[in-house]
Every structure is written in structure tokens, then in C-alpha cells.
Write a structure and sequence with these properties.
This protein is mainly α and about 325 residues long. Helix content is about 85%, strand content about 0%. Among the domains are: about 60 residues; about 120 residues, no CATH class. The protein has 10 helices and 2 strands.
């Protein structure tokens, strides 16, 4: 599949995952803020933390690619912490939906109806006892009040059943809590997966760009070598119009120049290949230790070309492998 299509899919799914995770986190923080009296502030804090959670995996991979190990470990710890917060908030928000589903079930509503009836009976008995006391019917009032503890006990029993209620009418009622945990965990893992895939695609694109640059550089060197040989051949042809002594001198001169150009071109490729194979250090001293008598200009050309193509990087006053 085309890398562009894969990258586009990752971007779309990353945005969708981030929006869903941010919505759940914001909803949870809003409910906490409602109890604290500042729901907007807590919702904004939850949104900010969740967006930061989505960005920290990029920081981890970038710092690691730059060989900043300590900073990447710190970013990884921060990312894990934010992911744990987002996971907890997502679970809490999903659990509220599961609880709401249980509360809307038939069995739950039946228990709630019974509790309401018993509470109404308790209120009526207390009101009746007050009227009996007002009518000086003390014995009847005491008998009426003696019925209330039984009703309160029954209300407590039903309340306990309601607190421990697990509906059995639907899959959500049976496995709602498990689904909440799995969904929240999947959101966190997906955010990391999409970031890793996008980073890998960028790395592949960068490697392909470097390879094409190297191939283009090699083609340019071959063209330059061909032009140089052609130019000297034309010069040698023109020199045949001179007298015999000048022909001998000029032929010797141009032949020496041609051999020198060929030697420099071959040395260029030999030095470049040795550096790419990491058999020679990318420095003037490292090259001259293996290639005796090579001019500093040729070494500078090789190092500059490798730096421009991305195989070398600046290090102190010289170069190092990228």
C-alpha cells in the first residue's frame, strides 16, 4: 500500500482517537469540577492534559532519534503518567454510562419503586402517629410508630440490593465494566501506535531521499569525469597541427592531466566508500592515515558531499556519522 495512503489513514484515525479520548477526559473532569464548584476550569485542565498526552509520544521518538537518552526517558515517564491519567478518566466516564444503563434496567426500576413505596408508607405512619398524639391516643400512636422500624429495615435491604445490582438483561449490563477497561486501554494504545507508524513512515521517506541524493551525486561525478576526458581529447586533437616537438610536449602534458583527473576521481570514490563502510574516520587525519598523499581539497570535497547528503553531521570542528 502507498505510504501516503497509510500516513493519511494514520492522521485521520489519530485525530479521531484524540478527540474521543479528550471528550471522555473532559467529561470526567467536568463532573469533578461540578462537585468542586468550577466545572469549566476542570474541563479545560482535562482537555489540556489529554492533548499533551497525544503529543508526548512524538517527543519521545524525536529525542530518542537525536540520541538524547536522558531527555527521552523523562519524556517517556511523562507520557506514561499522562496516559495513566487519561486511562483512568476514560474508564470513569465509561463506567458512568454503564451505571446509567443499569439504573435504567427493569429490575433496578422495580427495586426503586418498592423503596419509594416503603418510604411513602413511613411518612404516612409518622403523620398518623402525630395526629394520634394530638388526639391524646397515646397507645394507638405507639402502635403506629412500632410499624416504622420494620419498614426501615426493608428499605435498607432493598437499598443494599440496589447498590450491588448487576443487571442481566443485556451484554452491557453483564460485561459493561470489562468493556470500559478494554475500550480505555485500546484508546491509549492506539494513540501510541499511530504516532509510531507515522514516525516510521517519515523515517522511510527520509532514507529514500538520502538514497536518491547519493545516486544523483554519483551521476554528476560520472558526467564531470566524461566531460573532463572529452575536453582533453579535443585539446590533444588540436595539438596535432603544431610541429613535432610541440606535439610531443603537449601530448605528454595532456596525458598527465588526464591520468591525474582519473586518479582523483577514483580516489574520490575510494575515500567515499571507505567512509560509508565506517572503515575510515570522517576527518582529514582519518583519511590521510589510510590514503597517503591525498590532497586536502579532495578530502574536503568528499566530506562536504557526504555531509550534504545526510550521512555525516557537524561535530565540534569536523564531522561525525549521522
Amino acid at each position: 500500500m502507498n505510504h501516503t495512503i497509510i500516513k493519511l489513514i494514520c492522521i485521520v484515525l489519530s485525530v479521531a482517537t484524540a478527540c474521543l479520548s479528550a471528550t471522555l477526559t473532559t467529561k470526567f473532569m467536568f463532573s469533578i469540577g461540578t462537585d468542586m464548584g468550577s466545572p469549566i476550569l476542570m474541563a479545560a485542565l482535562g482537555l489540556l492534559l489529554d492533548l499533551a498526552k497525544c503529543a508526548t509520544p512524538l517527543f519521545v521518538l524525536f529525542l530518542w532519534s537525536q540520541k538524547m537518552r536522558l531527555a527521552s526517558v523523562f519524556a517517556l515517564v511523562l507520557s506514561m503518567t499522562l496516559s495513566a491519567v487519561s486511562f483512568s478518566a476514560s474508564v470513569a466516564a465509561l463506567e458512568s454510562g454503564v451505571v446509567a444503563n443499569a439504573q435504567n434496567s427493569v429490575s433496578y426500576q422495580r427495586i426503586e419503586s418498592q423503596i419509594t413505596d416503603y418510604r411513602d408508607q413511613v411518612i404516612e405512619l409518622r403523620q398518623l402517629a402525630k395526629r394520634q398524639q394530638a388526639a391524646k391516643q397515646i397507645t394507638k400512636s405507639q402502635n403506629t410508630l412500632s410499624q416504622i422500624p420494620t419498614l426501615l429495615t426493608r428499605i435498607d435491604e432493598l437499598s443494599n440490593q440496589q447498590a450491588n445490582f448487576t443487571g442481566s438483561e443485556s451484554v452491557v449490563s453483564k460485561y459493561g465494566m470489562m468493556i470500559s477497561y478494554v475500550t480505555a486501554l485500546a484508546l491509549e494504545l492506539l494513540s501510541w501506535l499511530f504516532v509510531c507508524v507515522s514516525f516510521a513512515l517519515n523515517k522511510v521517506k527520509h532514507s529514500c531521499s538520502q538514497l536518491s541524493t547519493v545516486v544523483h551525486s554519483q551521476q554528476n561525478m560520472r558526467v564531470q569525469h566524461t566531460d573532463l576526458t572529452t575536453e582533453h581529447s579535443q585539446t590533444q586533437t588540436q595539438s596535432f597541427t603544431l610541429d613535432t616537438q610541440l606535439i610531443a610536449v603537449n601530448d605528454g602534458y595532456f596525458n598527465n592531466e588526464c591520468e591525474k583527473a582519473k586518479c582523483d576521481s577514483q580516489l574520490y570514490f575510494d575515500i567515499r566508500d571507505a567512509i560509508l563502510a565506517k572503515g575510515v574516520k570522517p576527518s582529514f587525519r582519518g583519511v590521510t592515515q589510510q590514503f597517503k598523499g591525498v590532497s586536502r581539497g579532495l578530502i574536503a570535497n568528499v566530506l562536504t558531499d557526504l555531509h550534504e547528503t545526510g550521512f555525516l553531521k557537524n561535530y565540534r570542528k569536523g564531522y561525525a556519522f549521522a
